[in-house]
Fold this sequence. Notes:
This is 2-oxoglutarate dehydrogenase E1 component. With 939 residues, the chain is α/β, with parallel strands linked by helices.
Amino acid sequence: MQQSVMKAWWDSSHMAGGNATYIEEMYEAFLDDSQSVSDEWRDIFEKLPKLDGVEVETKHSLVRDQFRHLAALGPASRVSSAQSTASGSDEKQVKVLQLINAFRFRGHQHANLDPLGLWKQPRVRDLELSHHNLSEKDFDTTFNLGSYAIGKESMPLGELFDSLNRTYCGSIGTEYMHITDTDQKRWLQHRIESVQAKPEVAREDKINLLKGLVAADGMEKYLGAKFPGAKRFSLEGGDSLVPMLKALISHAGSNGTKEVVVGMAHRGRINTLVNVLGKNPSVLFDEFSGKHDDSLGAGDVKYHAGYSSDFATPGGNLHLALAFNPSHLEIVNPVVIGSVRARLDRRGCSDGSLVLPITIHGDAAIAGQGVVQETFNMSQTRGFQVGGTVRIVINNQVGFTTSKTEDARSTQYCTDIAKMVQAPIFHVNSDDPEAVLFVTRLALDYRNQFKRDVVIDLVCYRRHGHNEADEPNATQPIMYQKIKIHPVPRKIYADQLIAEGVIEAHEVKKLVSDYRAALDHGACVVEEWRPMTEHSVDWSPFLGHDWDVNYDSSISVDQIKELGEKLCTFPADYTLQSRVAKLYKDRVSMINGEKALDWGMAENLAYADIVTRGSNIRMTGQDSGRGTFFHRHAVLHNQTDGSDYIPLANMNDDQGKMEIYDSVLSEAAVVAFEYGYATAEPGTLTIWEAQFGDFANGAQVVIDQFLSSGEAKWGRLCGLTLLLPHGYEGQGPEHSSARLERFLQMCADHNWQVCVPSTPAQVFNMLRRQACRPLRKPLIVMSPKSLLRHPLAVSSIEELAEGVFHNVIDEIDDIVSNKVKRVVMCSGKVYYDLLEQRRKNEQTDVAIIRVEQLYPFPQAEFGQIMSKFKHVKDWVWCQEEPQNQGAWYCSQHHFRTALPRAATLTYAGRNASASPAVGYISVHNQQQKDLVDDALTIK
């Protein structure tokens, strides 16, 4: 039946025979852009029959199948006919539409992007008339423009060809046809094509652009003369970044943005600090002269520094922040995004409109650093989206000394990585400031309209080497011969404006001299700078406290029971998975006093108490909702319809916010994001949980450069908590150790806390302490695996209600202290192995002390417990980790200081090893037995 209907349709159709190829091409154009064909053809294509029940419009790949299928149903004579009934003008009309699409797809490859003119772009035949069977003979013929958004329905081919070259092959090369969303493509086409990528620029904007270039050039020349040879990672060659940023911030303010957070690497950072954020030049010059205050901490180099100020815009003042960051280039990007998410959450803004992230990249780094992909990947996910980021690449075409594309990357452009999230990419010649201004405003408007990332590739050069002491001619001789004679952007644009009659030559000279005079005077050179009043977070409650600061930790048994009852309440129509249902049934028994509390219940109770006190909690990790080891189940999944329910988010009406997200499969970007969040939101308990503690080493840059040293270097407080599953269970090298030793090696200046809690009551009060104590320091937790369900690792409600985290835990068995001959100190899971074996041995002359906080080492508390064992000379530190790992090497000086005089301290544990753990269970078991026996056997 279907075949007979389609045959009748085909027999009456003008799509038969030799027309098929022509129609296929037109249909391809229709699928790319339905407005690119006439109304008549569009009506025909929209009414095409379905192929095997599937509408052919859904896939390009079905086009030929559709026409072949129709051809097979028609008379053979018509299918095989070589004569086309299509007119030549109709065929050329299709070719013209294909030409328009070719420029949209590939015009950027012929754009004038490189200020130095050194780029050798390959010939793109798609952009040539002959490729489309067109020629200059057709220039006077008028063709329908389809969806070409120039404001006309038709145009002579000659005018159209010139228009396409101006729009897509001028100083701007636009890539957007990889975007699958038709509305986004239409929007971009209208904005770009309606003005042929070169709108009229108001005189005021031209003068502001010139002022920005004068400032950028003037700052670099001033520093070069005043501090010759000093590293400053000059912006020279990419000067347009300064007016670009000022225009971007101003446009953002006009659109209602209240805060802007910027992250960037070294190149141009000093210039940005002074000429955009308004840092006082005299302060900068003191830094170059080596003047500093020792009371400010360890400090950092000038081109890592951050800064904050307010910036006046037509829409009112906004708060502007430049994030601190180390030399690990792109790692600052997720930090910025995390900070923005915190600010958005604080303002109650879910669409990103009130806070704008701007990240500034190097061309080699954006293509080379994996954290860029991780950050792009998280950009549209629930837990990490911020309504899009404006990403700017300072593309100086050299990565340190590498300029050959085949060495720097495997893609044509350094920005191709952005296509993974279908971000539009605007390549722009930095020597054309007006083109830079156009794409800057366009990029922000796109971000605000569609809440997605957008990329500006500022194609420029660097006038000096990687730093000012470098010699670039050694590795880039041709490029630097060209740079040597190339005029600076300020001169190029000033000459243009003089020629246009916008400004006089003497006025340009005055702008230059006035800027230098302002630098000599040491005053702020940014007209838009304002004193800070717009920042919305108050850190004062968390400043000036020591570890022993008082805080309210009280909680009663009745309060805990009430929290537990609410934790175990969920909608009546929720069907839980059988194991989860049993777990919640057990939790009810725990609250009723019928069972002791396990780790998962105690942890959830801690969160319940924190949010009911009005504080917020944010937790992320690859399995954080459930917990890697099936213990948390803070997020319940209805087995009937898959819906989610979070009891912790439904405790009461005026509670704090509870957010828990299973993160993307990333460590570096996610931990960096959470660090950024925690540095911008002190009132939230921010937690990242590793799937296995070992995997935190994927975020080692964040841990080393931000978490452990951010306060010492930059004065940045942070209360981020890391939960790192740790414990030797015979699961091999990558599933045993959270590399405790690495965290302990970095302990100094009271930079963070390193804890190894061993009971549910301890984790309950440790988490509450982190949230409630008015002190914001990172908390590193060696969290358990087997202890989550260990029969001895349980607590009573009364133990939770003590409200105190014990940094050291004394012997719990009925051991007579004056009969003790040996004291074993330990942390974590090994305690239970020691305890069980000692009970099995019926030993009464060995005491076991647990050190629950390894840093800051609890000297006073340890001393109180130790006082009962002053007579003991034989002290042992026992650990599961190899001797060169774990706490032994990094903490033994603390242990020795606390011991009685004349006491000896020995080690019981695995031998030193290059690997964190063995991979054979039999070897693991023997090692574990040996180290326990060694610790308990008195020699």
